[in-house]
Design a protein that fits this description.
Blueprint: E1 38-44, E2 53-58, E3 63-67, E4 79-82, E5 89-95, E6 104-109, E7 114-118, E8 130-133, E9 138-145, E10 154-160
Antiparallel strand pairs: 1-2, 2-3, 3-4, 5-6, 6-7, 7-8, 9-10
């Protein structure tokens, strides 16, 4: 798995053809060697060091991994968090769920029909997984936003097998 960042240059419509003048420096690719059945990745700064970190859903081994970014555009060895036996995590998302200004991780656990929540402490560590059942639905996708303007994050899932959200 190789993680990259895509930047899109948008310009307002003009009579002439717009020209994007972004300049990029070439760096040697440093892919993260990965052997845990990655299914999904999300990016955030979990340890508040201003470098992007990644969280990866490990579908084949019922866990998520958090790898911390370094200043030289590499990542350290991942820290593994269990999502439970047979959970088969399908997607990860990050958001500050409890309004403590620290990023939390949300996992769609396809195999156990639940959403796993790992609350972040801001130092790169997370609480044990808290589970929220999705009933008979198998979550495969997650989105997080404040849908009803109550200043609290709402979690929306797309569910396989029940054609439901």
């Amino acid at each position: 798995m190789i993680i990259g960042i895509l930047v899109v240059c948008l310009t307002s419509p003009k009579q002439s053809v717009p020209k994007c003048e972004l300049k990029f420096n070439k760096i040697d690719p440093s892919p993260i060697e990965y052997k845990y059945g990655p299914r999904s990745v999300a990016i955030g700064d979990f340890n508040n060091d201003s470098w992007f970190d990644v969280v990866i859903a490990n579908n084949a081994v019922d866990s998520i991994s958090v790898a911390f970014g370094n200043s030289n555009i590499t990542f350290g060895s991942p820290t593994i968090y269990s999502t439970g036996t047979g959970s088969a995590p399908y997607m990860v998302a990050v958001h500050d769920l409890d309004n403590d200004y620290q990023l939390d991780i949300v996992v769609a656990n396809f195999g156990t029909n639940n959403i796993g929540i790992f609350l972040g402490f801001g130092n790169g560590s997370f609480s044990d997984q808290r589970e929220v059942s999705t009933g008979a639905s198998r979550p495969i996708s997650i989105s997080i936003s404040d849908l009803n303007n109550d200043t609290l994050a709402d979690i929306v899932t797309v569910n396989y097998g029940t054609q439901s959200i």
